[in-house]
TrEMBL record:
Protein name: TCPR2 protein
InterPro entries reported in the protein's UniProt record: WD40/YVTN_repeat-like_dom_sf, WD40_repeat_dom_sf, WD40_rpt
Any one of the GO BP annotations: protein exit from endoplasmic reticulum
Gene3D superfamilies associated with the record: YVTN repeat-like/Quinoprotein amine dehydrogenase
GO cellular component: cytoplasm
SUPFAM superfamilies assigned to the protein according to its UniProt record, in alphabetical order: WD40 repeat-like
Gene: Tecpr2
Organism of origin: Oceanodroma tethys (Wedge-rumped storm-petrel)
Classification via Pfam families: WD40
Amino acid sequence: MASVASPVIFKEFCPLYYLLNAIPTKVQKGFRSIVVYLTALDTNGDYIAVGSSIGMLYLYCRHLNQMKKYNFEGKCESITFVKLLSCFDDLVAVGTASGRVAVFQLVSSLPGRNKQLRRFDVAGIHRSSITALAWSPNGMKLFSGDDKGKIVYSALDLDQGLCNSSLVLEEPSSIVQLDYNQKVLLVSTLQRTLLFYTEEKSVKQVGTQPRK
């Protein structure tokens, strides 16, 4: 006799006021008061990462109940995508409206882990808004896509502090989603979904009909 499935219980969670109250609603830029909009979000068991319209990344540590702030040097521009990764070190990748991509290697209090905040930049390949980011499970590979269809592969050497980036694929429409596993990159655009085999550098389309 088949077992009876337990009933699904819906539970309503209250807003995270402790998080929202740590993010300013306005900032002062010279004589102007600028409204802060929340533009990107990612979470894992350790952190909640929130991108903003002023180029500031707010990173809330769930274990220490602490909020930290990270920003890009120079021009303040809207953050469009954030992607967390917990591997040997805690990493967060950030993309902006102009195509800038940065990786922050976070400080950890655990023995043998990273003790100094480091930043890696994906330099000069993207020229338009970042719409998707995907990590490899070990944090050595980062894929970034933009709204012009470009996909960039960045190889990170955290020990040497190096980041080497190259354009690996260019689609005719905006990238909307990326996911990577076992040398295969899943790519979704506004027109189609495909599998990109990173070793062979070959493409296999999922389905036959273009999206409308």
